[in-house]
Write a sequence for this structure.
């Protein structure tokens, strides 16, 4: 579940269907089941985190193809290092730590950790086809474009904290522990990220 | 409380992480500071707008590749157990092939060995027995010659002795 308080649904094939009466198992319980050979538990885990993790990656690196590679590599590492996982690590913290490290390495290799181009066409996200009216769709596309532009012009360190808090469901304390930055610095970065977002959205209105 | 501290608490408050004392302190500051109050309200609106946006999804191919990689890999014992029928068949083929190879190599030699040589070989198993055998044959041949020179043993016996002499001599030379 993300910080937005909604359960992410899996639209991929082979997903086990959950009864609404089922008590949703924790990430750690699912991962333990997977380590015991239950691949259906892994599918549920992937379904639970795929939106949040992919959203984090694609918006952090600003390149859909690169985000796909990073997303895949993150999960492959989860599979490869399953034997070394300890339950006290907390699964989503572990998952986002791997993803964050891979993304920063990739951006450094591309020398894009300092800045991300606003004009990167690959950052454009596809809207799901829910059949809205043309006017609604135009308005939504404009809003989405403004948000994308705001994220793209945001300093990477601010964007990292902002996206991690929005997508991972981790607390600021956990993000501080994960990034190795003091809590005050993490809060300052988040505050600065929100200020940037506000400013960009207001100036484009 | 200054505005910088209020901004930090505002962030915690937006995500439900401010504790009771912080929340009270922030509320008091916002009541007194118009700028911070407007910033808090604008942040809430900006976040709502961001959260309304559709979340990008990975491609189906990427997800399928991950799920495939997550399938458990069999261990060495499991692998051996699964391959056991094939391994047994392979082992049987190897045993049969080796047996056939040995048979082809040694069978003709066994057939070619004369019975007399076999007897001689079995008797002469060491250099000592070899020497004794040689002496006995020579002694016997000498005695036969002496007997023949002295008038012989009779036609039938002479023939038998001559045959035995030939056999012994030829087997000795073969051997």
């Amino acid at each position: 579940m993300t910080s937005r308080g909604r359960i992410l649904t899996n639209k991929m094939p082979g997903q086990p269907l959950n009864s609404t009466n089922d008590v949703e198992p924790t990430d750690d319980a699912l991962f333990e089941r997977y380590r015991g050979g239950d691949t259906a538990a892994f599918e549920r885990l992937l379904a639970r985190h795929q939106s949040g993790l992919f959203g984090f990656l694609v918006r952090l690196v600003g390149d859909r193809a690169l985000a796909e590679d990073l997303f895949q590599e993150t999960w492959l590492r989860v599979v490869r290092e399953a034997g070394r996982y300890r339950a006290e690590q907390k699964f989503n913290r572990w998952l986002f730590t791997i993803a964050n490290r891979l993304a920063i390495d990739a951006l450094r290799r591309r020398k894009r950790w300092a800045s991300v181009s606003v004009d990167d066409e690959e950052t454009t996200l596809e809207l799901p086809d829910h059949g809205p009216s043309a006017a609604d769709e135009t308005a939504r596309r404009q809003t989405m474009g403004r948000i994308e532009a705001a994220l793209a012009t945001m300093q990477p360190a601010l964007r990292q904290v902002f996206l991690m808090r929005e997508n991972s469901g981790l607390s600021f304390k956990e993000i501080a522990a994960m990034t190795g930055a003091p809590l005050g610095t993490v809060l300052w970065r988040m505050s600065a990220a929100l200020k940037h977002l506000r400013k960009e959205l207001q100036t484009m209105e | 409380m200054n505005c910088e501290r209020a901004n930090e608490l505002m962030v915690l408050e937006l995500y439900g992480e401010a504790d009771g004392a912080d929340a009270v302190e922030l509320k008091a500051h916002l009541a007194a500071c118009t700028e911070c109050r407007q910033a808090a309200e604008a942040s809430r609106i900006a976040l709502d707008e961001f959260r309304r946006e559709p979340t990008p999804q990975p491609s189906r191919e990427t997800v399928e590749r991950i799920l495939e990689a997550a399938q458990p890999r069999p261990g060495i014992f499991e692998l051996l157990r699964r391959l056991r029928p094939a391994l047994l068949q392979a082992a049987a083929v190897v045993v049969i092939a080796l047996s056939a190879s040995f048979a082809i190599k040694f069978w003709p030699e066994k057939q070619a060995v004369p019975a007399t040589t076999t007897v001689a070989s079995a008797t002469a198993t060491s250099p000592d027995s070899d020497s004794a055998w040689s002496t006995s044959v020579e002694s016997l041949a000498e005695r036969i010659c002496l007997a023949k020179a002295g008038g012989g043993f009779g036609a039938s016996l002479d023939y038998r002795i001559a045959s035995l002499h030939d056999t012994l001599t030829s087997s000795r030379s073969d051997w």
